[in-house]
Amino acid sequence: MAELQQNFTVTIHGGLHARPASELVGIAKSFHSKIEILRDGKVANAKSPVKILLLGVREGDSITVMIDGDDAADAMARVSTFFEAGDNENTPPAAEGGAAAKPTAPITIEAAKAATPTHGIGASEGAAEGVAYHFFQSPLPDPSSLPALEVKGNSKEQELARYRNALARSSDEINARAKDDDPTGAEIVAALSEIAGDEEWQEQVTAHIRAGACALKAVLISGEETARSVEALDDPYARARAEDIRAVMRIIAFTLMGKELPSLDRVPYGAIVVAEEITALDLSTADLSRIGGLLCQKGASTSHAAIVSRAHGIPAVFGFEVSAAKLQRVSYVALDGSSGEVVLDPSEEVIARYRASIDAERQIAKQRLAFKEVQPVTKDGREITIAANIGSLGEIKAAKENGAMGVGLFRTELLFMDRRELPTEDEQLAIYEVALRAFEGQDVIIRTLDIGGDKPLRGVEFPAEENPFLGWRGIRMCLDTPSIFKPQLRALLRAAPAGKLKVMLPMVSDIEEVRATKQLIDECIMELDAEGKPYARFDLGIMVETPAAVLAAELFAKEVAFFSIGTNDLTQYVMAADRMNPTVAKLYKTDNAAVLNAVSLVCLAAQSAGIWVGVCGEAAANPDLARKFIERGVTELSMSPASILRAKQVVCEL
Fold it and tell me: pTM, whole model, 2 decimals?
């Protein structure tokens, strides 16, 4: 048996709320070891999403992970990856473009005869006006009004069977609501499914039934107890997760009562949904393109309903403190999801003013959408490629909808990390071919495996390292483990005929690393020739993210077809400032003269050799930095799909 303990600072946006808690539970359940999280003297089982929520772990908190069991080392490596990665790539900002985006114009209401505007919490930007669609659900029974069972063995067993059957049906119903075309909603639904299946919550319900409560009473009591415990937490982001507990409790309770949950599948086009509270489960039944806006008495900007609203550009105001009776009488609503302003039953003049503001928003969105098919060219004639950073095939749709001109960074490590066994050559081939065919005629740049001491990989024994960011990672690890690297290179060669493939190597610091990779590629080609398998060569480039690569850029430029600057690590290494350490955050700035000078050196070396330079770090989406990169000679910017349309517009205005 092995007992391990490690401290972490939580960098996940919002802390361990339902979605990251669900992801952590999935990781914990894949191991036999006992895994616990300690925060401020409180301990939680990492295999229970509810217990994790009740810890109230916030962004920036320090926690301790304790693991005891035969596979403790593997478990700790995977948990370390989860916490050290944070969720910078998994929690996108509100959409900045695309069909669903609704940029906001300020609303000024001056009508003397207008209904008096009041305010709630602006949860999702944008203005909206429309008829009210009332969505007030019938209240659940008061647990105290429900009869207790006359305690007999068979009655308890019958109620336990009823509960288990309702739980299974409810879990199926929750999972059925995940939509393939809505990654944000599907991720939230998966988190709610984990809550429904929480073993400790099930034990709590079972205990109430064994104590004499009927199944419905047990579900309501335990659900409300858990929700109130979550609401008592200090952090508002964590408190908002009580919504998730009650949403799951309601669906189980309705199943036990033999009732169907009310649905939003018949909302009139453009209507404002008015409710006491809206949950992500409620929204999962709706055609979200039909909803004009949301107005709720309860809720917060950190709720899952707010996250879904922002992802789909639906203006929303939550926490609107008026009586349910008053809301139920409303026939028309105007609201501003930025300021939280709400006007109930507005006058014609107020409606006209809102419509003018909405028209202005649409004009902004239309102007930005006009850039979807545009090849951005600066005013002095420089053509710039705006591509997407992706980590899975599920992100391709958003990239294409936002006008991505190919893929500037496909992170292949995500294909390796969340599985018990390494992906086979054929499995990788299938994924790469899908990506290449999706961007027919456009470059797809796939980064080879970027795994190292800071991002462990199951099946690979990593040495203990004082500073894994300066250790065995990226191309260093790959060249030392050809049993992992060669199948990836073979899969890439075999995928190349499907499109315009380019491959880049991460964490390069020595020219011999490039030459050794070329030798391996040649070996793979000889093997494929002998096996009679089709393939094609690809352009090979490097990520420039170490000072060594910058200072030797002229040498590298003679060996590779392109450079792609990874600004995240380059900034960290040039400034000697850990990007995960808040105490040195003031030094971690890509716009520092030293970092920009490094970019200039790379561009000069590339220009002399006749190769191109891209930027695939987060800084590529920053309008001010994009201008500075382009001034220095960068011709490709790659970023998250949500930023692409804005970036195209910015380039055309330079």
Answer: 0.54
